[in-house]
């Protein structure tokens, strides 16, 4: 029984995040014709302290999925459980507690900060909303320091435009840390930063995970980022997870042609002999192709290598199947990628 006003802590070893058959759509007519299926039947779990990466091209649904995890968009159906509570059922005090424990970091730190607010005010705001115990100045200084802005007092009176992009993102991270979150969802946290500071923010996230035991969900188009940071990765294409598993296994022994294509532009992970450059744009998400939704761009189909399986690719939706322990792929021909 959860006492009123509290978000239940996860039982030891129980997943912090559990997503079951989640659908999130946008737009469409009165009968939902033409509705964009941004997230289309997604299920996964994230363990406490895990770094779970959701990867894919822009428009694949990964940001919508991240927002649904925090209850910022309403699913058409399906469930999201975080720390033992179903997010869509939270209200009142329990929703407020949840908002404190599950924080989101967006890609554009300038857009996340009020240009008229000093760093101190920006970081203190959450502490005031949630009436955190302790001296406010110490809480703000502690959060800034943890986010790598030291000495913290030097930044108290700075405005966002006076800071570098990396410092601004650290202020955003400090604004989340002051609330003592259990779960951080970071949506492309380094994509708008100079290459020179990306590594620093990456290291900060790794350190925070180790120091605070945070559960991190990283949303990125960059598999190199997943490689550096994640324990597991889910690769999304047009609203569906097409491959999911331990990051090293998925990125060094990918089973899905889409993952292989993404790896072609992630040289940090190492070039593959069977990688192929992805051509063309993803199809219109309001008009998803039948069968495997990747078939219009799939190098296996386009090159004729699908052979007798090609009609299946065009007509039958592949299930996400476990092909190695913990390693899932949604491709009719995935077995061909397994070692003999
Ligand atoms: Fe390509 Fe067919 Fe596999 Fe889809 S099911 S990824 S079209 S080979």
Question: What's the helix and strand layout?
Answer:
Layout: E1 17-26, E2 36-46, E3 51-55, H1 62-69, E4 77-82, E5 85-86, H2 92-101, E6 102-105, H3 109-112, H4 119-129, H5 136-146, H6 165-177, E7 183-187, H7 195-212, E8 215-220, H8 223-229, E9 232-237, E10 240-246, H9 247-252, H10 257-263, H11 299-302, H12 310-315, E11 321-324, E12 327-329
Parallel strand pairs: 3-8, 3-9, 6-7, 7-8
Antiparallel strand pairs: 1-2, 1-4, 4-5, 9-10, 10-12, 11-12
The chain binds iron/sulfur cluster (SF4).
Q: Uncertain segments of ≥5 residues (pLDDT<50)?
A: 1-11
Q: What percent strand?
A: 15-25%
Q: CATH topology of the domain at 17-83 and 182-337, anyone?
A: Rossmann fold
Number of E strands? 12
* First-to-last CA distance: 50 Å
Main sheet record: 8 strands, mixed
What series of H and E elements makes up the topology?
EEEHEEHEHHHHEHEHEEHHHHEE
Helix content: 25-40%
Which architecture of the domain at 17-83 and 182-337 would the CATH scheme give at its second level? 3-Layer(aba) Sandwich
Widest sheet: strand ordering: 6-7-8-3-9-10-12-11
* CATH-assigned homologous superfamily of the domain at 17-83 and 182-337: P-loop containing nucleotide triphosphate hydrolases
Task: Kindly report the average pLDDT value.
Answer: 89
Helix segment tally:
12
The CATH class assignment of the domain at 17-83 and 182-337 is: Alpha Beta
């Amino acid at each position: 029984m959860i006492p009123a006003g509290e978000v239940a802590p996860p039982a030891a070893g129980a997943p912090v995040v559990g997503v079951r058959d989640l659908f999130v759509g946008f737009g469409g007519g009165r009968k939902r014709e033409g509705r964009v299926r941004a997230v289309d039947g997604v299920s996964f779990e994230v363990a406490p302290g895990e770094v779970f990466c959701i990867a894919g091209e822009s428009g694949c649904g990964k940001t919508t999925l991240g927002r649904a995890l925090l209850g910022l968009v309403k699913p058409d159906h399906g469930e999201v459980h975080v720390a033992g509570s179903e997010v869509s059922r939270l209200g009142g005090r329990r929703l407020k507690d949840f908002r404190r424990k599950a924080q989101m970091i967006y890609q554009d730190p300038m857009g996340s900060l009020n240009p008229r607010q000093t760093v101190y005010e920006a970081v203190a705001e959450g502490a005031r909303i949630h009436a955190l115990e302790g001296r406010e100045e110490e809480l703000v200084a502690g959060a800034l320091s943890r986010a790598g802005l030291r000495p913290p007092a030097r930044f108290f009176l700075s405005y966002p435009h006076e800071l570098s992009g990396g410092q601004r993102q650290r202020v955003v991270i400090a604004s989340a840390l002051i609330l003592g979150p259990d779960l951080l969802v970071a949506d492309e946290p380094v994509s708008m930063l100079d290459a020179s500071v990306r590594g620093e923010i990456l290291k900060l996230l790794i350190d925070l995970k180790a120091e605070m035991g945070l559960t991190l969900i990283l949303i990125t188009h960059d598999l190199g980022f997943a490689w550096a940071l994640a324990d597991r990765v889910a690769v999304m294409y047009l609203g569906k997870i097409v491959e999911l598993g331990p990051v090293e296994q998925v990125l060094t022994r990918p089973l899905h042609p889409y993952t292989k294509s993404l790896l072609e532009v992630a040289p940090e992970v190492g070039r593959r002999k069977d990688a192929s450059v992805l051509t063309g744009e993803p199809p219109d998400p309001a008009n998803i192709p039948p069968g495997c939704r990747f078939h219009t761009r799939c190098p296996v189909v386009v090159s004729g290598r699908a052979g007798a399986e090609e009609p299946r690719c065009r007509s039958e939706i592949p299930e996400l199947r476990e092909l190695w322990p913990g390693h899932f792929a949604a491709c009719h021909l995935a077995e061909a990628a397994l070692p003999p």
